[in-house]
């Protein structure tokens, strides 16, 4: 009862009480008007020792708090956003803020973000590497200009040792033990991530590049309208498919004469496009298949060693790469599904050519088993994956056709 009279407390105490009262009203208003939000916000209220300084401070805090709460509740209630054309899951964002694509550009920790990038590389080189091949990789990278971003996929887990090379500091290093080029590509080269790059080079580590220059290569790819390409391959004492074999008489070739009787259609692999296995699809003859498998089994690896994709073709190819089929066997054949017409947009650049060095690499990191060399187990998996990809593709096509008939 004695507290109802302000008399004994003096003038300044009265002021303090008024401030406290105001504070209470504001806080009450804010809490009341945004109850569900503040309940989860954990706002720590300042202690209530009223002096003039605290009073000012409290008012500031409260006006900021109120403004915030007010704005939030306004945008939530009055302008509810739902844009169906936004990327899936991001419909509640105003389209102007959405960044659906990214890049491998390195940024500064300080300064103005718009001044971070002195150059914006237009192309990407992704190499799957082991440290033992460091000198070859250093030579390979020397053939690629500043117009390239470099990504190194380290299958042996050794990343920091590469810093002896000057270029390593501007490269992106990604490490996962004993994983293949296609495993990495599927996980780290999503088309939305590599969107700014006009051409993607997804290369193996054991390539001789003495007669190769990346800028010249891109000029030829542009000139001949190639969406998927690879440099001509100089065969040194091992079997090479005619299609990828370097020809000395032309800049670029898109068709080739395969060994007699191998071409069902001159516009289809193995006589055009990438690839080597296609005959099976068209003849379906067991005898050829057997012969073909024999050839394939003689080769230790028939991978796509040095493919170059345009941005558009990569968007398609990435979607075709299966998460579990890590060796990419059979992909060479399927590539033609990603460009139209394949016999004009897939080709081999002979004027800029490479050599396959056939060095021990990831394939030899398999495990020795039952007296078999490590690479034998890997090759068996490659072959199995190749058949699996074929059958998945056939099944998918069948399902698609069937659905359309219904
Ligand atoms: C890397 O390659 C460049 C160009 O060929 C060469 O000048 C340099 O010495 C090499 N670096 C090392 C550490 O071998």
Give a structural overview:
The chain is α/β, with parallel strands linked by helices and 406 residues long. The protein folds into two domains: 7-77; 123-400, Spore Coat Polysaccharide Biosynthesis Protein SpsA, Chain A (Alpha-Beta Complex), CATH 3.90.550. The protein has helices spanning 10-33, 35-39, 52-77, 134-142, 181-188, 214-223, 279-283, 286-298, 311-320, 331-334, 342-345, 374-405; strands spanning 123-129, 148-154, 172-175, 199-203, 207-208, 228-234, 252-253, 308-310, 346-356. The radius of gyration is 32 Å and the shape is globular. The termini are far apart. 2-acetamido-2-deoxy-beta-D-glucopyranose binds at residues 138-139, 142, 164-165. InterPro entries: DUF707. It holds the Pfam family DUF707. Keywords: Membrane, Transmembrane, Transmembrane helix.
Which key features would you list for this structure?
alpha/beta; DUF707; 406 residues; binds 2-acetamido-2-deoxy-beta-D-glucopyranose; 12 helices; transmembrane; Spore Coat Polysaccharide Biosynthesis Protein SpsA, Chain A; disordered N terminus; transmembrane helix; membrane; 9-stranded mixed β-sheet; 37% helix
Could you give a short description of this structure?
The chain is of the alpha/beta class and 406 residues long. It has twelve helices and nine strands.
Whole-number mean pLDDT: 77
Described by strand count, sense and barrel closure, the largest sheet is: 9 strands, mixed
H/E topology pattern? HHHEHEEHEEHEEHHEHHHEH
| Structure summary, number of beta strands | 9
Any idea how many domains? 2
Radius of gyration: 32 Å
């Amino acid at each position: 009862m004695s507290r109802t009279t302000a008399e004994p407390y003096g003038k300044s105490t009265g002021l303090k009480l008024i401030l406290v009262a105001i504070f209470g009203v504001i806080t009450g208003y804010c809490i009341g008007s945004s109850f569900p939000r503040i309940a989860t916000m954990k706002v720590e209220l300042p202690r209530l020792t009223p002096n003039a300084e605290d009073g000012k401070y409290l008012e500031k805090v409260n006006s900021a708090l109120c403004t915030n709460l007010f704005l939030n509740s306004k945008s939530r209630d009055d302008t509810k956003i739902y844009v169906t054309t936004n990327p899936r899951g991001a419909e509640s964002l105003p389209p102007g803020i959405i960044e659906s694509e990214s890049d491998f550009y390195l940024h500064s920790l300080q300064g103005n973000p718009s001044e971070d990038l002195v150059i914006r590389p237009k192309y990407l080189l992704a190499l799957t590497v082991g440290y033992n091949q460091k000198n070859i990789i250093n030579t390979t990278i020397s053939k690629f200009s500043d117009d390239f971003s470099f990504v190194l996929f380290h299958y042996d887990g050794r990343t920091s040792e590469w810093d002896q090379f000057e270029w390593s500091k501007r490269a992106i290093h990604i490490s996962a033990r004993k994983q293949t080029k296609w495993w990495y590509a599927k996980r780290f080269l999503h088309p939305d991530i590599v969107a700014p790059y006009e051409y993607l080079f997804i290369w193996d580590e054991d390539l001789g590049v003495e007669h190769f220059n990346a800028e010249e290569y891109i000029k030829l790819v542009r000139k001949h309208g190639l969406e998927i390409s690879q440099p001509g391959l100089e065969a040194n004492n091992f079997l090479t498919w005619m299609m990828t074999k370097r020809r000395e008489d032309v800049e670029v070739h898109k068709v080739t004469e395969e060994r007699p009787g191998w071409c069902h259609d001159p516009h289809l692999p193995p006589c055009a496009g990438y690839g080597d296995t296609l005959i099976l699809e068209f003849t379906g003859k067991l005898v050829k298949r057997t012969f073909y498998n024999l050839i394939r089994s003689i080769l230790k690896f028939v991978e796509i060693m040095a493919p170059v994709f345009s941005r558009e073709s990569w968007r398609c190819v990435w979607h075709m790469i299966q998460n579990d089929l890590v060796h990419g066997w059979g992909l060479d054949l399927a590539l033609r599904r990603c460009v139209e017409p394949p016999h004009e947009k897939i080709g081999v650049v002979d004027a800029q050519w490479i050599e396959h060095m056939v060095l021990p690499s990831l394939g030899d990191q398999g495990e020795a088993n039952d007296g078999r060399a490590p690479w034998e187990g890997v090759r068996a998996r490659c072959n199995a994956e190749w058949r699996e990809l074929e059958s998945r593709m056939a099944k998918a096509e069948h399902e698609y056709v069937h659905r359309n008939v219904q």
